[in-house]
Write a structure and sequence with these properties.
The chain is α+β, with helices and mostly antiparallel strands. The chain folds into two domains: about 120 residues, no CATH class; about 90 residues. Helices cover about 40% and strands about 20% of the residues. Strands 4-5-6-7 form a four-stranded antiparallel β-sheet. Strands 1-3-2 form a three-stranded antiparallel β-sheet. Helix 5 runs antiparallel to helix 6.
Length: about 210
């Protein structure tokens, strides 16, 4: 099995935190629900799925939402990750330890993994600018959209206002990336979370996952 998408997503998360907090050679713990792991692996196995090598190159969306069905139960996923994933990522993320409680998995990434991400991935101008912008008091959605337009003119804005997420912004082309940026207006400032297309489709099935038209 090819674990590139899971590995790249972990690298994305580590890079995002290094942009926010600064780089430190330290142990990092990442947590994933079983459903997300299954969706990442299922997307990887689709013949028309493509993955980027690092943040900024983009993770191309798989046409159509994923089924959301679990391929592996928790024990099967643990065995798969122990047997194959750990050796697959040893040259990049180091000796990753995998554990789980119920359907919640923890990946313990040693300092070598943080060092690798800092050393081997390019600075992501889009994400650096986005984090600086949204972290500024008084930032507006219009300013975020203007930032996206520096990289692509094919962007979508969805207004949800469901009590948790107010806006969703994403690129139709996978440039600068294909994450769904979920924006919440807390009155005095904006905060964000970003999701893969598959995870967003699971959270908001009525949206159809916001997949680009083919």
């Amino acid at each position: 099995m090819n674990f590139s998408r899971l590995e790249n997503q972990m690298i994305d998360v580590i890079k995002e935190e290094q942009i926010k907090l600064g780089y430190r050679s330290e142990t990092i713990r990442l947590y994933y629900p079983l459903e997300t792991l299954n969706r990442l692996l299922a997307a990887e196995e689709k013949p028309d799925a493509q993955t980027g090598a690092a943040e900024g190159q983009g993770l191309s969306a798989v046409p159509g939402p994923s089924t959301g069905n679990c391929t592996f139960d928790a024990s099967g996923m643990q065995a798969l990750l122990e047997k194959e994933f750990r050796s697959r990522v040893s040259d990049s993320l180091g000796d990753v330890a995998v554990s789980h409680k119920g359907d919640r998995f923890c990946f313990r990434i040693p300092p070598e993994g943080a060092d690798y991400v800092h050393r081997s991935t390019d600075e992501n101008d889009f994400l650096v600018g986005f984090i600086r912008l949204i972290g500024r008091h008084g930032c507006t959605v219009e300013e975020l959209l203007a930032h996206f337009r520096k990289y692509t003119d094919r962007i979508r804005l969805l207004e949800l206002h469901d009590g948790e997420v107010d806006y969703v912004i994403y690129s139709e082309t996978g440039t600068p990336d294909d994450y769904r940026y979920c924006i919440t207006d807390e009155g005095c400032h904006l905060i964000y979370h970003r999701f893969t297309p598959e995870d967003f489709a699971e959270l908001y099935p009525e949206s159809g996952g916001l997949y680009p038209s083919q």
